[in-house]
Amino acid sequence: MSSIQPVRGTHDLIGEEQRRHARVVSTARHIAGLYGFDEWSTPIFEETRVFSRSLGDTSDVVSKEMYSFNDRDGESLTLRPEGTAAICRALVTNALTQSLPQKVFYTGPMFRHERPQKGRYRQFHQIGAELLGAAEPLADAEAIALGYAVLEALGVAQYVTLELNTLGDAASRDAWRQALVAYFSAHEGRLSEDSRIRLAKNPLRILDSKDAGDRELVANAPMMEEFLTTEARTFWDELRLKLDLFGIAYTVNPAIVRGLDYYNHTTFEFVTNRLGSQGTVLAGGRYDGLVKQMGGPEVPAIGWAAGVERLAMLLESAPEAPRSVVLIPVGSPDEKAVCQILQALRQQGVRTEIGYKGSLRKRMERAGKQNASHVLFLGEDELARGVFRVKSMETGQEDEVATDALLSDARSIFAR
Ligand code: ATP
Ligand code: MG
After folding, report:
1. What is the pLDDT of residues 179-208, one digit of tens each?
2. What is the set of domains in the chain, with CATH numbers?
3. Is 82 close to ligand 1, i.e. is its CB under 6 Å away?
4. Staple 85 to which of 54, 193, 267, 352, CB 3.0 to 4.6 Å?
5. Ligand-binding site membership of 83 (annotated)
6. Which atom of ligand 1 is closest in space to residue 258's alpha carbon?
7. Which pTM was predicted?
């Protein structure tokens, strides 16, 4: 049998990598809280139609990336490829459309059958925010400000720029779609095979193509801006005004159409040039029609998601491994006393481990690897005298400390 490997495009998070991930998630959770967002957790799998209905048949995700399977009851289920559709499903099935707005933060693994490469995996993690039930451009600006604040708190804001666009409302989009069909039809022979299918089904999707030939054509395609209705133009102007009020800088990029079908009005991406071709770290937009597609009422909404792996790579440095105090029994001191002191230290908030077995030298080596700040030696003699020997791994200095002091004031002893 060949050796067992993790599934292609998946990875284990261990040590420094796990700490980077945890930093991204806990920072985002904290900042989202400051903006009044509450965390929701939805299941990792859903009925397939939660995604197939909402993301669009011609989106990359639905057409070729979903992990769908029939379960033992013959029901078609899908490992969630993204969070927004599931949050909208949850809004409807929990009858929360009666108490709007809802401001939701979420995090967790997502699954897409993509070609794995740096910054692109088959199981990856997202943090995301959804502001459900707010129709005004101020909500869009707040959602974007939250995204920016997360990037700032992670210390990566200087590596990213905000690219902003509008897809207008339905009427603007219809007029634009017609112009795009006329334009791409005239150049159909130069389109990639995928994009020829898109031309028939969903021509806007061509703008999101990653094919180099398509991209050349896209560069000269008609622009959304020319087709905006008065209402959509007002929304677009207001949004930019509000972003100015929040002090958020952006550049307008008409090519930001996003990969999923449900967006209208605002679309945006925070991009970096530090991650090669996987440069989008946080992206989102307005999706006023999605909740209705889940069987709910019309609920205007705006949100974004960010790739935790990409943000973790951008972090300047990994969070430090935690320091431990390691207790090393010397000889065979009373086990009850050993366990009591371990628990007493942990109850005082000190990360405490025990050096199980081996020679003293081995156990000291191991303590070094465990990133110990101090080692506590406890032998029968010390136990009888009511003391511990405490060695600082930083300075090498060894002191005797009364057991009573350890039991009552451990943190200040190990702060030295
Ligand atoms: P891309 O154009 O890179 O495929 P997307 O439009 O499919 O991105 P979204 O669905 O908007 O991406 O997801 C939001 C964010 O999640 C992305 O900006 C990215 O940071 C991250 N992300 C998406 N797919 C992956 C993946 N396969 N592996 C790692 N991160 C991903
Ligand atoms: Mg994608």
Report:
1. 999 999 999 999 999 999 989 888 888 988
2. 16-169+229-314 (3.30.930.10), 324-414 (3.40.50.800)
3. yes
4. 54
5. yes
6. 6
7. 0.92
